[in-house]
């Protein structure tokens, strides 16, 4: 089992702290979603002029860069040129760091009909294909926003190539927001699932659709069932912890949440192997 975390969970850590604690806690990789609160890491010195030193420091710690998590939003016509530029910049980073994945959001429809959103997304995905084809890099669409249900995510994939576009299964959101069972998610999206995000939560009383993040195993998300589905289908990709500390500063500190994730997932893997 290959474990990673997104830097969304440690918004106050400097790069050296991210690398050293990733190794200390027993992770295998790092998914960069910002650094010290700056989301576009390609604009920062460690990933621009000093990228070789950054790459070597990460490799020397026995780690990989598993993904660059972008802010690309497929259904935003207004952002199409910005999205394409962001894709190109992250594709360059993937080449520099030997990274296979760039995360993208389907995004919020904002009053548009779903068919209109699909058409907007198709335009961007066609242009993205031209950038990524032959590079070995994939844009992975997260099950999130107005594209959380597996059936809706599948609509975004129509006409795209498995060579350049895949799915990031955030195992939390389809279940929490729609009660979608993991078997259903896999039945619909399994051939395109390349990467996974993990977190746990409990629903809030009296506020439908809201929840509170909890440490792994302390919520009611059926994480064991999700892991079992992946194992039964021979998934060999990353299990990435997405602790949304940047967006929810009141949740527990990464120094506590990150090692708990590693322990939970290693125990889950060991138990399942018996």
Automatic annotation (TrEMBL):
SUPFAM superfamilies: Xylose isomerase-like. It holds the Pfam family AP_endonuc_2. Residues 20-266 form the Xylose isomerase-like TIM barrel domain. It comes from the Bacteria. InterPro entries: IolE/XylAMocC-like, Xyl_isomerase-like_sf, Xyl_isomerase-like_TIM-brl. One of its GO terms (molecular function) is isomerase activity. Keywords: Isomerase. This is Sugar phosphate isomerase/epimerase.
